[in-house]
């Protein structure tokens, strides 16, 4: 009799151990009980916001390499596998990442959370018109992260997913988001102060990536190329830009840190302008990394660059 009791107890013990392991795996797969969440992002602002909100509970990797362009990037099979094994894939969703459909399709049967950071954000098209449709198609300006107020919504969407995956750290994520939101609000005030103190509101950029500053602060960019750096102007458009620049006595042409534009170089010589660099924050370069730059510090430098460009 004792022998049978021992056998039954042994069977029950094994059952409980296996059940416990199964529950443990289930909790780990959903993010609950895991030490850190593995988060994959597409552009630098999403990486920066994810790290600041997630803090010690996240390990964040931006899949687009340093200095690369999200427009033309194609993830490798190895990268696809890593994302499928991760807890969340955070992408912008405004059309700047040409590879996201492939990633989403590849991980659709996995437990990876797909996070469209721009969900609910007011977008604008190339004519400065607010786009209300959820589906982003056509000539929508993808560079939504450059407006600090819209960046708050991006960050909040990230925060909400972190809480969904790891609800036991809701208070921690909320507190980190609150700090980031306050920094973005201060940045917005600095932008507004700079614009108020500037006598001019027009500036020339090599690439029309800064339309959200028009909407948010009343500035007007004169773009040499369109929403995509490859969209070069016609001869007539170039002549009109030269005419406007000379008339307004614009002294500077603003280039981006990771975009070359031969037409802009020609225009610079034609109007006798100097060059300044605006950082589009899409991706960091090696110098940014060495200086430990983040979204806030780079945007502060952009404000000072604009202050100089508008002082003519």
UniProtKB/TrEMBL annotation:
Membrane-crossing ranges are none
Gene3D superfamilies with a match to the protein in the record: Nitrogenase molybdenum iron protein domain
Family note: Belongs to the bacterial solute-binding protein 9 family.
Spell out the protein name for this chain: Zinc ABC transporter substrate-binding protein
Q: Which Pfam families match?
A: ZnuA
In its UniProt entry, the species of origin is given as Niallia hominis
Q: Return the InterPro entries for the record.
A: AdhesinB, Bact_metal-bind_prot9, Lipoprotein_PsaA-like, ZnuA-like
Keyword annotations for this protein?
Signal, Transport
